[in-house]
Write a structure and sequence with these properties.
The protein is built from four helices and no strands. It is mainly alpha-helical.
Length: 111
Amino acid sequence: MAPTKRSKPPVKPQEFYEEALSQAERVRLSRAKQIQGLDEEIALLRVRLSRLAEEQPENLELLIKGIGMLVRAVSAKYKLSHQAEDDLYQSLLGVLKGVGNVLLPEGFHEG
């Protein structure tokens, strides 16, 4: 009788990434799974964008990337249409450009 090959049991989707995490990260992941909605993530993005604007107002590329992330998170939360998402993005870019012109009038250039 030929030996049978023992295959690994299928990986459960919720456990797929856990293999790459430390024990502390697994605990945090477990806690994170209990959170619903995007309020905390949106608030964290806003705090980080504010800090970035204060500490590196000339880093337009990074600020624009951060604003894009914020717009996508807000869009997902409120299920905005693509047009509404684009309008929000353009509005936030306008604010960023206005602030940049006030803070760095001689050296503020769009990237």
